[in-house]
Give the backbone structure.
Amino acid sequence: MKRGSWGEDHELLLAQSEDGVIRTRDLKDLGVSSSTITRQCEAGGSWRWLLPKIVSLYRAPPSRRQQLVAAKLYGGERAVVTGYEACRGLGLMNAPATRTIHLLIPNDQQLREQELLLIERTRRLPKVVVTEGIPIAVATRAVLDAARRVKARDPVRALLAEAVQRGFTTVELLLEELAQGGQRGSAIPRQVLKELSEGARSVAEIDAHRVWKRSGLPAPLWNRPLVNSAGEHIATPDGWFDEVGLAWEIDSVGFHADPTGYARTVRRNSRYAAAGILVLQTLPAQLRAAPDQVIAELRAAYRAAAATPRPSVLVV
């Protein structure tokens, strides 16, 4: 492009940008003067500033995608998006939308924080996954970077439990990352990981752990498959009181909202009945809204199971 010809080749400028986002130095390399950039980004112009030295070639408010591109260009080649934004990019559902983008940069790099960006300097840049051109931290680092900045336990439980349950990471990897990352903001994630390491796979099961601990009953086995005397699979109850043969299932309404989910539950309960297993079904909402009632039901079910011969089933 010839210098000064940008106005005639606006499409070429767009082609050299990423989703309409471009650095001022790249504009200058394409022949756009500093005065033209300034004028176009002022009121009445066709462009807008997104970050220092980062321009959108559109006047309209930027999309989230354009904000992410701007953050990447502003941060430089080694910058990595982490926290909730990275979690959403990975597909985690329990990552709420946030206004700011959490950006990791090398410890020896100096950048001023911006309204759009939470900038964190680190000596431990994580491995990355590139999603739609944006480098984001792998799940183990992303979820903990998010969790360290949350003051409430429930959202941390939801995020970490989902990441483990869906196979994005493991409790062991999370504990290792937590140990390497220092103590700041680690208390709540550490408590949640302790709950997860005891066998719970979901937020509801973590709540079930807390309720059981108040019940005074013997410790159940969590998420262990059961087979009958012929070795045929029966089910994998959330909690299994082996001494008396009581299964405890935390069944959400959402799981049964479709015909397939309902049919699975009916078949499971039929297998329990055929094996002579007493089952207590509890809704997740009850664990928080009425824990005393759940404790009473759990104790009553345990007594009822203890009053009958233990079914001939094995834990595998």
